[in-house]
Give the backbone structure.
Amino acid sequence: MIDVRGLTALAVADGVRVGKWRARDVVEPYLDRIAQLDGALGCYLRVDADGARRQADAVDAACKGGRDPGPLAGIPLGIKDIFCTRGVETTCASKILRGFVPPYESTVTARLGAAGAVALGKLNMDEFAMGSSTENSAFQPTRNPWSPAHVPGGSSGGSAAAVAASLCAGATGTDTGGSIRQPAALCGVVGVKPTYGRVSRYGVIAFASSLDHPGPFGRTVEDAAALLEVMSGLDPLDATSIPQPVGGYRQAARSGREGLAGVRLGVPQEYFQPGMDPEVETAVRAAIDELARAGAQIVPVSLPHTKYAIATYYLICTAEASSNLARYDGVRYGHRAEQVRSLEELYTHTRGEGFGAEPKRRIMLGAYVLRAGYYEAYYGKALRARRKIADDFSAAFAACDAIVTPTSPVPAFKFGERTADPLAMYLADVYTVAPDLAGIPALSQPCGLTRAGLPIGLQTIGPALGEEICFRVAGAFEARTDWHTRLPPEPAL
Amino acid sequence: MARIGPQEVLELASLARLQLTTEEVARMTDDLAAILDYVDALRTLDTTDVEPMTHAVPFDCPLRVDRVAPSLSAEEALANAPRRTESFFEVPRIVPVAGAPEDDT
Amino acid sequence: MSVADYEVVIGLEVHVQLATRSKIFSWSSAAFGGEPNTHTDPVCLGLPGTLPVLNRAAVDSAVRLGLAAGCTIRRRCRFARKHFFYPDLPKGFQISQFDEPICDGGAIKFRLHGEPHEVALTRIHLEEDTGKNIHAAAGVSFVDYNRAGVPLCEIVSEPNIRSAEEAAEYVRAVRSLVRYLGIGDGNMEEGSLRCDANVSLRVRGAAAYGTKAEIKNMNSFKNVRDAIEHEVKRQATLLDRGERVAQETRLWDPARGVTQSMRSKESAHDYRYFPEPDLPPLVVTEQQLTDFRAALPELPEDRFARYTGPGGLTPQDAGVLIADHEIAGYFDAVVAAGAPPKRAANWVINEVLARVSHIPDLAFDNPGLEVGPSALAELINLIEDGTLSGKLAKDVFARMWTERRTAGDLVKAEGLAQVSDGAALEEICKRIVAAHPEEAARVQSSPKLIGFFVGAVMKETGGKGNPKAINDILKRLLGS
């Protein structure tokens, strides 16, 4: 049996495409690993073994029949449970969606499937993607493969942990305030949030519509690039989807091996502030030095409105979330309260029982800031602040080609450490929310381990539609370091 | 603090159709007050003459051609319904309320 | 005080369903009816993860309506989410427009008591329709989402309407405009045109508006007039007694002829509008406006002016003809085929409209129509050139309608051509006069007896005699 631990997605596809192995031969060991190890980690909410085998067999049939099995042939992927999958229960890790089986497929998963990828199952997450630790899942915790006492980050914690633990060769995620990059950093894998609209949101359950960015997780920069190339592109079902042609992300990632001559990398002082873990700062500074040795010119830049980013983010995302979550009423799908005496009770009981604490908090805050009379002071103000934060980046990109920062101010924290104080949890996103507000691409990759053995992430931020520069910089760093080859210890059986 | 009290929390919960327990109301009151205090920092930011950024994409609304594609069947549409009667979704009897745009009898 | 001491203040919100093929934000059919929940798709059902994509035909319809009503079309407008919980609203919000509607201002023009009149508009905006709640027995209600997502234009008038009759005429004019533009069928019974009225009273001369009540469920022009008339009386009675009018929504009950309060919730609605993040701003270009303006059809009031020009139709006839674009189009086609306008108007109004129950059947290209405009013109021209008598023509038309034959065919086959041959008529007249010597002698003293002779001659010709010719001959023979 193939040992898939540490296997890259592209190695799987290359092997399938050249006939080194069959897709089915790769899927089985992943299913075995999940069966053996996921009980301890809790990455998967649902494994679709039959569906995965069916898809793998279809890839093998294509190969056998001399047809192109697609660029992602046989790559076993984990799918964040926020992506609607036709015929496969999709819950967003919420009790209110328990039992919901979509009659449609998200554009992202449809494109991945058409490219030959195989979906192993649905991955755990914070309920409705609200959280930074996956502790808000209504169903189970997910443990950080590097240390079971620590969270994997969130909201795409299941995705990051599953890739880190080789329970899939790649994964999908969504990033609204850092939900791909922060767990990627905390689990030591690569996570990419592309330009807003680059990847279609159709079939991705909405949290905050103007901030939701679907994107990939990979073990390497090129893996993530290959997945993003397939996920990206204009979608007639998403009116905010970008019409420009998709870039050559894999090529950009590979070009980083040639070094970064002529590339100006901005380092914002505002991202190196008190409160940052010293080990994180040391690792990120060392990474920046490495990028300089690769030929990049390091320039100081300023993002003066960074300090407003979290407040801006929470006003916008809660307003949009309160709206997006209004549809969960127990009428058409999902949980419905029993023994209600009136329509009012149907609504209040269904929603009171179905939503967890964090969605409730955000629904309430969102309703508050949108109320007549408060709108301008809160929501309107936040939309203006958002513009200023986006303008900061535009100004900075006049002086540099990409910006490098820590992804998270701290490595993975312990379970329960931040759950008591929602604000403390919100601050975990301090370095990731601004690119979401600006809608610009950003990537996190592993750049070190703490003395305790917890991963540290380096974030590269590009201008709008500048995914290629992000991949080039990340590719350069990866070519000169071996952090991406480190594997977490195997969970005790 | 005290910019939001339990009464307003209950009003919001009613507006958002969320049933909250007494404990939840207390906790929510504290949490919302703390968060509102935190976001108060925005007040110091001068946003005069700044255009609100409602979308992260710079382009105009794309339009679709007026073409009909197949409907879901009634069975597909109702497949996830917790309660149904024949080909209808079922809800507790609606007592018409003001504010709804219309009500068909 | 009496009703006459109060000034009535009415503002109307008219919702017009746009006759697009598919829904405003998704691909399922926007057609009326259908088995329950068979015109749906994941988007209009509000399933999680689905997104709206705007239908170009809905935008075009709104722009054309706005141009026809003289509105200012916003070159850039936005959609907004309007939040409320109701079973027929799948997403918990309705995608509508709030502070940036597609059309501002404008007016609806019509005639009131024969005089040109107009009601100013506040705005016209685009939004999606809701599904339908059906109140079943036994403590439950049912929901059908076929209608969810059908495109609507909401036309909001200024509160400048002063009577129930004016309100009803305004709604009629909106319906007419919508149908002229071909953007909707304006069918109030099926709900493709719906109307809510905000009604308040104030003492004449007062500056401030009184408290208004919103009246719903008026699904005919008559309902609009009756409901508002009733509401005005109700409010006047309250005010006379020194009581207050409650700000509330009231439902018109046409069976009982009263408006009734809907149980209103304590908290005022707070719709928590905010810009729809799933739809970027909608842009209408100058070129589009130019093209749409150039392609607008002749509108009802322009048509009225054309019909009532010098030597034209009476305002009454013109009013009947312009009420529907199909009627006016039919009339125009009859005239275009050579019939004199006044006579054509008489025939259309008295004969054609009496037989057509479904006005859209008059569409000029409807091959199923019993008597098309050119066939009617042929008939009229046979009367004009004296081939067919007016008396017989009505029977011929009736047979044209039922037998689907042309007037020329009927006249020829049945020998119905009018006898205008002077010698033949003279012969008959002489015979009749000779047969009635007593009456002939009395004609001098009682001129009305000439009618007796005309009738007798007509009878003899089987109704085909030219009445004018007969009259002339008899007068000569009888020396009257």
Summary: Chain A touches chain C at residues 82-84, 90, 92, 97, 100, 102-104, 106, 201-206, 208-210, 236-240, 319-320, 322-323, 325-329, 331-333, 343, 347, 367, 370-372, 375, 379 (CB under 8 Å). The first strand of chain A starts at residue 44 and ends at 47.
